[in-house]
């Protein structure tokens, strides 16, 4: 089942747990990333991490070893982030978890797990498809009352083959004492 993003870039959609449960299994259409994987982003990330792996720095060596230099696997989440603004268009939703109609206006990332199925190379044109996997009943934490929303993102190459599967858990809540 495909789902449109009703927010159009605004804050999280407010609704009930019962409404939210109908979203389990919804999957977005594949959305192309805003730019190809590029040398400057990969080298900048590797520099920030002080990672001297020649697969990220030495184009000749990486080309013979992997067919092209690689993107550090730790930067996959940053590759998924849509541009917040584009001329003539609204920015894409950062996550379907914001579109799920639930109580709670505050989000905190709880867990991210990435299964890399093949290396990501400089020049790769990727797209993603996101699915709502689960929504917990209301929980009480020291942060406040809310729901855990589990999503799975499939990162796809130009031929729509899986490159990675990323499972993410967010906690959507209203802060304790906020009166919501």
Spell out the blueprint of helices and strands:
Elements: H1 17-21, E1 31-32, H2 39-49, H3 54-57, H4 59-66, H5 76-80, E2 85-86, E3 89-90, E4 106-116, E5 127-135, E6 139-140, E7 144-156, E8 162-175
Q: What's the CATH superfamily of the domain at 17-37 and 92-175, by name?
A: Hotdog Thioesterase
Query: Multimeric state of these chains?
Result: single chain
Topology as a string of helices (H) and strands (E): HEHHHHEEEEEEE
Q: Count of helical segments?
A: 5
Uncertain stretches = 1-9
| Number of separate strands | 8
Radius of gyration: 18 Å
CATH topology of the domain at 17-37 and 92-175: Thiol Ester Dehydrase, Chain A
CATH class of the domain at 17-37 and 92-175: Alpha Beta
Shape: elongated
Intertermini distance: 32 Å
CATH architecture annotation of the domain at 17-37 and 92-175: Roll
What class, by secondary structure content? alpha+beta
- The share of residues in extended strands comes to 25-35%
**How much helicity do the residues have?**
10-25%
């Amino acid at each position: 089942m495909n789902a449109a993003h009703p927010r159009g870039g605004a804050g999280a959609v407010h609704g009930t747990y019962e409404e939210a449960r109908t979203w389990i299994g919804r999957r977005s259409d594949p959305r192309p990333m805003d730019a190809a994987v590029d040398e400057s982003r990969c080298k900048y990330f590797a520099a920030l991490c002080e990672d001297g792996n020649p697969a990220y720095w030495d184009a000749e060596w990486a080309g013979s070893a992997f067919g092209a230099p690689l993107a550090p696997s730790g930067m996959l989440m940053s590759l998924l982030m849509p541009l917040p603004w584009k001329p003539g268009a609204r920015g894409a939703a950062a996550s379907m978890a914001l579109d799920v109609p639930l109580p709670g206006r505050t989000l905190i990332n709880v867990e991210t797990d990435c299964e890399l199925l093949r290396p990501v190379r400089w020049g790769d044109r990727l797209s993603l498809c996101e699915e709502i996997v689960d929504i917990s009943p209301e929980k009480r934490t020291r942060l406040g009352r809310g729901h855990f929303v589990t999503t799975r993102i499939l990162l796809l190459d130009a031929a729509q083959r899986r490159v990675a599967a990323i499972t993410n858990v967010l906690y959507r809540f209203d802060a304790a004492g906020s009166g919501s």
